[in-house]
Amino acid sequence: MLAVNGRFPACLRGILIFFYCVILLPAMLGCGALNVIAQPAPTQTPTSSSTPSPTLTLTPQPTLTATPTKAPVVCGGPPAMFILLIGSDSRRDNYSAGLADAIRLVRVDFIEPRALVLPFPRDLYVEIPGIESDDEIRQGKINQAYLYGNTASDDREGQGPGLLALTLQHNFGAYVDHHLAVNLQSLVRIVDELGGIDIDLPYVVDGRVPGSKDPNRYFPAGEQHLNGYRTMLLARMRPQGDLQRIEVQSLILQSLAEKLFSLVGLREFPALIETFRESVQTDLGPVEIGQLLCLATKLDVEEIEFVSFPEDLFKSERVRDPVLGNTSALTANFDLMKIYVQRFIHGNWPQPHETPSERIGP
Fold first, then answer.
1. Is the pTM of this model over 0.90?
2. Which of 142, 200, 277, 328 has the fewest CB within 10 Å, making it most exposed?
3. Average pLDDT of the residues in 148-173
4. pLDDT per residue over 16-64, tens digit each?
5. What is the pLDDT of residues 100-131, one digit of tens each?
6. Helix/strand/coil (H, E, C) string of the chain?
C-alpha cells in the first residue's frame, strides 16, 4: 500500500523478491504452500465373460461434455484473499481496548496477480451484530465494533477483528478471510526503529485546540521528517473530518513503506520481525504469509491500487447514540455502498471516467 489512488514504486518488486527468496522460501516449501497435487491417470478395468461370444460387440464410449476451464491460481493461494487491516488507537501493549482508527480491506488476487485496497470511514454509523443488551444497544460507529469484540476477549485469535469483519459483512456484504491489527504504541516503536519517516503533505494539518501553541500538533504543508510520536499524532488528526484523515493516513503508509523497504530497512528486517512479532494482532499464519510473498514475486507493480468510495456518498450528521450520546457520525446510502463493495469483491472497481450510473452498476 504505497500510494494514494496510485501505484507501488518499481523498486519494491525487487526487494520483495529478495526477501521472499532468502528468508521465506524454505518455510513455504516446508508448509506445502508451493506443492502441486498430481491427479492419478484414469485406469480401465477389463471385463471378462464365461460364455464365449461369436461376435465382438464394441461398446460406444461416452461422449465427453466440455466443461469450463477454471483459471489457474498461483502460489497455492485461493482465487482471492481478503485481508482486513486495522490501525487501533490503543496505547497499551495488548489489544483489550482501543477503537479501529483506520479500517482498510485488501483484495489480493491470485489469478491475475494484483491487489485493491479499500478504506472504510471509521465514523460510519452502522448496525453492530451480536451486541444486543438490556440497554437495546444495536448501533454504533463502525470503529466501536473492534472495541466491543476485543473487550469480550483479548485472545490472539482476535475477537475485535472478528466482530469488525462481521459488521462489514452485515452492513455492506463485505468478505474477510484474515486480519492484521497494529496499535499506536507499536506504530510509534516501528517508526522510531526505522529512524523516522519523510512525508510530503499537500496541505497544512493543524490539530491544535484554540489557543494552543503545541508545535507537535501542527504540520505545515510540504516535506518534513517525523519521529514515531509525531507520526502517531498526524495519523489520528482529522481537523477537516474523517475523509481527510483517510487521505493523510494513506500518505503515512506510503512514507512508512518506502522507508521500511529501503535498503536500510531491509538490512534491519530480521531484527524488526523479532522485535514486533508479538506486537500485532493477526491470524495470518506461515502458509498465508508464504502465499502472499510468493505472489509478490509475480505481481505487476502497476496492478496494486488504492480505491475509495466517492466522497459525496457520505453525509455528516448528529446522531443520538446510547453510549456516545449526541455525537457526530457519517451516514450513507448503504444500498449504494453494497454495490460498490460487490464490485470490489469481484475485482471490478469503477474507473474514474465512468458516469455515476455506470460506476454503481452490477
1. no
2. 277
3. 80
4. 333 333 333 333 333 333 333 333 344 444 343 344 444 434 444 444 5
5. 988 999 999 999 888 888 999 999 999 998 77
6. CCCCCCCCCCHHHHHHHHHHHHHHHHHHHHHCCCCCCCCCCCCCCCCCCCCCCCCCCCCCCCCCCCCCCCCCCCCCCCCEEEEEEEEECCCCCCCCCCCEEEEEEEEEECCCCEEEEEECCCCEEEECCCCCCCCCCCEEEHHHHHHHHHHHCCCCCCHHHHHHHHHHHHHHCCCCCEEEEEEHHHHHHHHHHCCCEEEEECCCEECCCCCCCCHHHEECCEEEEECHHHHHHHHHCCCCCHHHHHHHHHHHHHHHHHHHCCHHHHHCHHHHHHHHCCCEEECCCHHHHHHHHHHHCCCCHHHEEECCCCHHHEEEEEEEECCCEEEEEEEECHHHHHHHHHHHHCCCCCCCCCCHHHHCCC
